[in-house]
Design goal:
By secondary structure, this protein is an all-alpha fold. The protein is built from 9 helices and no strands. It has 2 domains: 54 residues, Homeodomain-like (Arc Repressor Mutant, subunit A, Orthogonal Bundle), CATH 1.10.10.60; 131 residues, Tetracycline Repressor, domain 2 (Orthogonal Bundle). α4 runs parallel beside α7 and α8 packs antiparallel against α9. It is elongated, with a radius of gyration of 19 Å.
């Protein structure tokens, strides 16, 4: 970001621009993503947009970072207060579905179309480290101790399973399916509690 917003009005303008960028990316894809279209959608002048974002790559990075922050807050908040396992799983699944339902096709664009650079790779590496750390905390809280168990490996498997289901559902426009939420909750509970054959 070129200029950090200091006043509430400026922060609201920046948030409106980032939201507009997410909307345009979701609707038109990377090929149709332009700063002019974002400014028009946000209801600001192109000059105002350029005060904060020098080009469309910086806008893309802001959209990515906002999504990363949202996902991290979902995982962190779900694992607070050492609530029962099923409640943790339900809150995590609801939160992850909500985070990916705002602009469902956006995630396909971010994954499959949008370019990356050193900044985006660094941001993603930082996100992954925090992401796995939050999952490892949840695993340590809810998974029964087992001889030779590797908390980090379990966290990677759990996070990859949830991420894979959510992203595939977003691609297929199935995030609102009640059975999806139900089965994902059951998967988390079974894996962390050791029920059935999962994780043995």
């Amino acid at each position: 970001m070129r200029k950090q917003p200091r006043q509430a009005r400026s922060r609201a303008t920046v948030e409106a621009i980032i939201e507009a960028a997410a909307h345009v990316l979701s609707r038109l894809g990377w090929a149709g993503f332009t700063t002019n279209k974002v400014a028009e959608t946000a209801g600001v002048s192109i000059g105002t947009l350029y005060q904060y974002f020098p080009d469309k790559l910086s806008l893309l990075e802001a959209v990515r970072r906002r999504h990363f922050d949202h996902v991290l807050s979902v995982i962190r908040d779900s694992a607070e207060d050492q609530k029962p396992l099923r409640k943790f799983a339900q809150e995590l699944v609801r939160g992850m579905i909500a985070a990916h339902s705002i602009h469902p096709t956006l995630h396909q664009v971010l994954l499959d179309e949008a370019p990356g650079d050193r900044g985006s790779r660094a941001a993603h590496a930082s996100f992954q480290a925090q992401y796995l750390n939050h999952y490892a905390t949840a695993v340590a809280t809810y998974r029964k101790p087992r001889k030779g168990a590797d908390t980090e490996a379990v966290a990677r498997v759990l996070s990859s399973a949830i991420e894979g289901v959510i992203h595939n559902a977003a691609r297929r426009n199935m995030l609102a399916a009640p059975e999806l939420q139900k089965q994902l909750v059951e998967l988390i509970c079974a894996y962390l509690s050791g029920a059935g054959r999962i994780g043995r």
